[in-house]
Amino acid sequence: MTSRKHVSKIHLYNTLTRKKEDFSPISTNEVRMYTCGPTVYNYPHIGNYRAYIFADVLKRVLVYNNFKVDHIMNLTDVDDKTIRESQKEKKGLKEFTEFYTQEFLKDVKALHILNPTKFTKATDYIDKMVEIIKKLLSNGLAYKSEDGSVYFSIKKFKNYGKLAQIELENQKENASGRIQTDEYDKDNVQDFALWKAWDEKDGDVFWKTDLGKGRPGWHIECSAMSMANLGEEIDIHTGGVDNIFPHHENEIAQSEGATGKQFVRYWMHNEWVLVDQKKMAKSFNNFYTLRDLIDKGIDPLAYRFWLLMANYRTRVNFVWEAIEAAQTALKRLYSLFLGLGGQTGSVHQEYQNKFTEYLNDDLNTPRALSLLWDVIKDENMSDADKKATILDFDKVFGLGFAELKAESIPENIKLLVEEREQARLDKDFKKSDKLREKINSLGYEIKDTPEGQKVAKL
Ligand code: AMP
Ligand code: ZN
């Protein structure tokens, strides 16, 4: 363990209190964290990936602060959408969701999102879901409807609405009915389905359990997977802001209703990626997939880099020009990094302290990134120390500096460099400047360092 952990406290914005709070986990050195993962029914759009890149950066910051992080991300492989779409394609649910799971995992890798401790599939946790629902039935917070479905009675749970900060009056007015669908908005504050009794539309998707023949509702899935893997009380739960209601509100109701304990200490949510100032969404048909970006020559890491330029709690508007500019800037950073040569020195303590301080302030990635540029430009640092410091920062950024390979310099450029070396030895600076211009015009940059000339691609 290094002393870095004590450089600055971690402050995180908690949606539950609408405040930045001091972060202190339940166990001293370990953080238990859950991320609501994708519904594997099609290709996620790049807006979705903001949720996973945000969770990844958060985890990396915690690890950078020397915490051990136990991280679960679920894969929703049974819900209204997966059933509907698999039927449209005339495929079995398992085969259908497995395909999109594999596609998701490819994107995760391309975006340098570190694998969680475990990816969990909802269909592997039906028993745990049934166990929680039975507890809720026995303590009077849930009831069976005429068709055998089980609903959560929100009026019986006195803290209902604490995360989404729903007005109680509003709740009373609207809470007269039940809602069967997995997704709905605040106009439908109603009793929600924990267990959906089988009906014809579900086809061959059902489980025969103590609750009868049927399938779980979406919300209970995350409560079950979180509790089964991380325990009844955890530190952090993440998702996009549209998960706050109803999904996370319902997770709290079910989990706390069943255990009587505080389910999650810090609820954290990323803001939206917009297109023309409107949320990127499948339903608005204004979305791009990672494949769309790659087809336009955009490196997935340029998208990651673009997101890091904004705080996760600000909305960002997607425009191609901005992504292209981000890609140019990232390539420039890569090239400057490669120009630092092969030696790795030591991490600059002051920069590292500042870096930690910025990130520990609710993940201020824009400031942390500007520090990266400061390191590159610092005239008082050796190239070897710059290299070590950038590699250290990249543990959080995940931009792949360590994997960069110096491109081989073409022979004609090498000859010009040698010629320039000779001109400098002859103190013919006019000639040396001319040769520098020539090298620049061919797309290469030359830097004079105490160790000699260094060449890199512009
Ligand atoms: P879904 O598959 O709809 O459950 O979405 C997966 C994740 O992406 C959730 O955490 C959502 O909150 C998040 N999300 C969806 N749309 C956007 C968007 N336009 N910008 C940022 N996050 C989003
Ligand atoms: Zn979830």
List its salient traits.
458 residues; alpha/beta; Rossmann fold; 3 domains; six-stranded mixed sheet; five-stranded parallel sheet; 43% helix; elongated; disordered N terminus; binds adenosine monophosphate; binds zinc ion
Structural account:
One of its GO terms (cellular component) is cytosol. Its cofactor is Zn(2+). This protein is of the alpha/beta class and 458 residues long. It folds into 3 domains: 258 residues, HUPs (Rossmann fold, 3-Layer(aba) Sandwich); 114 residues, no CATH class; 47 residues. Helices cover 43% and strands 18% of the residues. The chain contains 15 helices and 18 strands. The strands form 5 sheets. Strands 6, 7, 8, 9, 10 and 11 form a 6-stranded mixed β-sheet that branches. A 5-stranded parallel β-sheet has the order 5-4-3-12-13. The longest helix is centred in the N-terminal third of the chain and has 19 residues. The radius of gyration is 26 Å and the shape is elongated. It binds adenosine monophosphate and zinc ion. Adenosine monophosphate binds next to α1 and β12.
In short:
This protein has 458 residues and is of the alpha/beta class.
